[in-house]
Write a structure and sequence with these properties.
This protein has about 325 residues and is α+β, with helices and mostly antiparallel strands. The protein is built from 9 helices and 12 strands. Helices cover about 30% and strands about 30% of the residues. The longest helix is centred in the last third of the chain and has 15 residues, at about 290-305.
């Protein structure tokens, strides 16, 4: 049987339900067998690929100079990787398990149109108890990066914000950039940009954390499931009451937003939640999402960076959310 371990059980069950395959109380292997009997091999392969390079993190890095000539296009970049012996031609569009050791290694690569997907593996160490003492053991830590060629020239790094510099610089080295590896993240995560992003995605606000310039320090408002507090009258009355005692409520520190996206190919529905951390300057999903959701949000972030919505519209949205 094919290996479809990348697909989370939630979405496997959705596909099973749509194809009248029993999934309740069954292991993934049994559900997959039932889907294969319903001629769903192509959809299983598709969904497995959708989660192969997935993560909860996403940072868009824009190099301060154009992509080097030897990596100007996906084809040239792949050729560079082969010539410099980082991969073989046979590795392209494949996944493998290199021997763990010092340094970052490529363990999967995919060419898809104007983008190249890279999966890296790095050996990391941890201490675990054994007997009366402890020993040091290691594990494989994975990080994905997507390089978008063409007009935008963006490196999408899918790792915690603390490791963005390490992986961005590593990719820029592979591409042939000269030191220092200068880049900046886009878009700048301001409150106005967060409002614009939610508007493009038709996303609601599930939670908002605001700074209160007082001894209280900050307040977090959490809506009930499915409630968009940005449009909720109780939320507005509470913030207006706070403003009524002379304390502003327009300093958002972070907010968690939600939207639903349905995949055209499989009709799998994803309820995506993401955090825009304005104070920390990073964006992340609250759980792993498939590639088509990354693509949807990437398009929105690029539009925000390019100023997709009129400033007066943003100002009106900002005023309404106070």
């Amino acid at each position: 049987m094919n290996d479809f371990n990348n697909i989370p059980k939630t979405y496997l069950n959705q596909l099973a339900k749509a194809n009248k395959v029993v999934f309740s109380g069954r292991e993934s292997e049994e559900v997959i067998k039932g889907l294969l009997e319903k001629s769903q091999l192509n959809n299983l392969i598709y969904l497995n690929e959708q989660f192969k390079y997935s993560s909860t993190h996403m940072t868009l890095c824009k190099p301060e100079s154009h992509f080097p000539d030897k990596s100007k296009t996906p084809e040239l970049f792949l050729s560079t990787l082969v010539k410099e012996k980082h991969i073989t031609k046979g590795n392209i569009n494949k996944e493998w398990e290199p021997i763990l050791g010092p340094g970052i290694k490529i363990c999967a690569i995919r060419h898809d149109g104007a983008s190249v997907y890279l999966k890296f593996v790095e050996e990391k160490f941890y201490k675990k108890k054994k007997g009366y003492g402890s020993i040091i053991d290691s594990y494989a830590s994975f990080t994905s990066v997507v390089i978008h060629f063409g007009e935008e020239e963006i490196i999408q790094v899918r790792c915690p914000v603390s490791e963005v510099n390490k992986y961005s610089e590593h990719v820029m080295h592979l591409m042939g950039f000269a030191k220092p590896y200068d880049f900046f993240t886009v878009p700048k995560l301001t409150r106005e940009n967060a409002i614009e992003l939610c508007k493009i995605l038709s996303a609601g606000v599930a939670s908002r954390h605001i700074a209160i310039p007082s001894n209280v320090g900050s307040l977090r408002f959490n809506g009930k499931r499915g409630i968009n507090i940005a449009n909720d009258q109780t939320y507005h009355k509470l913030t207006q009451a706070i403003q009524g005692i002379g304390i502003p409520t327009d300093q958002t520190m972070d907010e968690t937003c939600f939207f639903t996206y349905t995949d055209d190919k499989t009709n799998v529905k994803v309820e995506a939640r993401f955090e825009v951390n304005i104070q920390g300057g990073f964006f992340k999903f609250t759980k792993t999402v498939p590639e088509f959701v990354f693509d949807h949000v990437l398009e929105a972030l690029v539009r925000v960076n390019n100023g997709a919505i009129d400033n007066q519209e943003i100002a009106a949205s900002t005023e309404a959310s106070n």
